[in-house]
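Handoff note, outgoing to incoming analyst
You'll be picking up this chain. Sequence as last confirmed:
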Amino acid sequence: MSIRTVVRNRAGARNRTGVWSRTGARNRTGVGSRAGARSRNAAGARAGAGARTTPPGSAPYRSRTRRLLERHRAALLLVALVSMGALLLPYRQVQSAAGEMRTRGAPAVQGVAATQLALLRAHEEAKGSVTDRIADVVGAGARYETQLAAADQGLTRLADVQIDGERGRGALETVNGVLTSYSASITPAVTKYVSDDPMREEKFAEADTLLTRKDTGVVPRLDVLQGHQMERVDRLSSAGPLQRVGWAVAETGLLAMALITLSALWVLRTRCGHSLDLCLLVSLAATVFLAVVPLTATVVTLDRLDTARDGLARIERRAHDHTDLARSQKADTDESARVRADLARSQQAVTDESALVRAGLAARDWQSGTYYGALAGGVTILLLPVIGLGRHLNTDYRRPG
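Most recent structure output, in case you need it:
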């Protein structure tokens, strides 16, 4: 083999091995590296583009601040519902009690007392017509007729305003029946038997028994009815345990409502950059209104009811004292003039006391509108926090596309 042949073979081997290998290596490393770099750059660019779709400065969905605002909204709604239910029910009950006391309770108590005094005075006027020697001319006299007519009118009104229910209606029916028998006894005593002392005294004794006998007489039966009515008045004029619990729950709930509203305002200021929220501020003002005004109106109303109850108790006591006195002096005609004068003064005192009671129970304009103001305030504290916090949740922390 010649020297040139050997040189060509070695050169071919280098071309087939060394040159080809280096070229392949360059292809496998350089080209692959550039392709990987381009893939990584493209992926990074897509990730950057996706990140830029979220508005700058906003938190991702279900962030901690969003959850905190949602809890505030739920707590405000729940506390508002409980507070308004606990507030409106006892407030309405107190106002209804004041209305019943004004339209029925006070007139019923005053009516029974006035009827008792009128019957007792009519009886004394009938006896006085005999002792004053006027029965021979005009019978029992105009004063007797006037007082008996007043008693009849009083019984008629009591049928409409008495507050003892079916028991009271039954008592009044019995009283009317006994009063008819009383008239049948007293009328002959001052007309037919004026000159017949034994028969006159017998008829007076019968009439006196029908009028003042314990438990069965007209006036004692009215006294029992009056006692039942005063029990009803006591219930109307005082706040029961359930009302006190309702007010405690309402005031506690409204205090919690104010604190939660202040906490929501603080979260919006410190975490969201909102210094004030009009809806939450108006809701806070309505909460303060509901915590103060209805409670003040209730306290004032209960105070007026207490005053009215005291006045009605004085009216009831005055008539009751005369009933006891009439039973103890039923056969005594020597002091008829003094008894008649005392009864006249008591009747005037009952009239004056009744006027004071009615004036004290008269509805006040500002108290009449408080209930509807409380309803409006309740709607305010229910809706405005939901609207205010919902707006921030939708604008600052909305759900992604």
